[in-house]
Design a protein that fits this description.
By secondary structure, the protein is mainly beta. It has one helix at about 1-30, and strands at about 35-45, 50, 55-60, 60-75, 75-95, 100-120, 125-140, 145-160, 165-180, 190-205. It has an 8-stranded antiparallel beta barrel with strand order 1-4-5-6-7-8-9-10. It is elongated and about 65 Å long. Mean pLDDT is about 80; it is low at about 1-5 and about 15-30.
Length: about 210
């Protein structure tokens, strides 16, 4: 019985050692992926939406920020993780019996997305395109927040500098998602809208 327990402990120990060695190996490989972190300022432009010809939904244009972590396991492709934040006003203009009214509320939006990247490398400019998706969390100052799944398309340029660890990045981003309605009667929660985000910033490579 003791021998059995001893053998089991040795087996568990060996598995742990293999797992630890594998983790260290992956960590060492990760350092070779030419990863970078970036921050960019964005502008937000969302397409307006009409629901049943009664309620018009639109958002104000607004600035925001997006933080990005990228990894490049091969020379021509990579992956990225994004966190974005913006704040704007959501407005609903409705018609009822010939009368027209407007209601609205300030709204914070948190973005959590991931994407696959494809980027041919040239000497001075490094263009890229990305496709992915994630989720958006809409948080009005009044009422309940609403989550929406989102698709992400993006294209842009990495602009290296003489410092191999620092560069600039410009890009255009598009988020595709179902419009939030925050339980407003007549507001559409099934129609899809597009948020376009031109952005510019910098990245640090390590």
């Amino acid at each position: 019985m003791l021998k059995s327990k001893s053998s089991m402990m040795k087996c568990v120990l060996n598995v742990c050692l293999v797992a630890a060695a594998s983790a260290v190996g992956h960590a060492q490989i990760y350092k070779l992926h030419n990863a970078d972190v970036g921050i960019a300022a964005t502008g937000q432009f969302t397409t307006p939406l009409t629901s049943n010809g009664i309620v018009n939904q639109n958002t104000t244009m607004s600035p925001g920020l997006v933080f990005t972590l990228r990894d490049h396991p091969v020379a021509w492709a990579g992956v990225e993780l994004n966190y974005g934040f913006t704040r704007y006003s959501q407005r609903y203009t409705y018609t009822n019996g010939g009368a027209t009214g407007t209601i609205g509320d300030s709204n914070s939006v948190h973005e959590a997305t991931a994407a696959y990247l494809f980027h041919p490398h040239f000497r001075h400019l490094q263009p890229f395109v990305g496709i992915g998706g994630g989720a958006l969390d809409f948080m009005p100052t009044q009422g309940q927040n609403q989550w929406r799944g989102a698709g992400l398309l993006e294209a842009g340029l990495d602009i290296p500098t003489r410092n191999p660890h620092f560069g600039f990045r410009v890009q255009g981003r598009s988020l595709y998602y179902r419009a939030p309605n925050f339980d407003i009667k007549g507001g559409s929660s099934q129609s899809w809208v597009v948020t376009t985000q031109p952005s510019g910033g910098a990245y640090i490579r390590f």
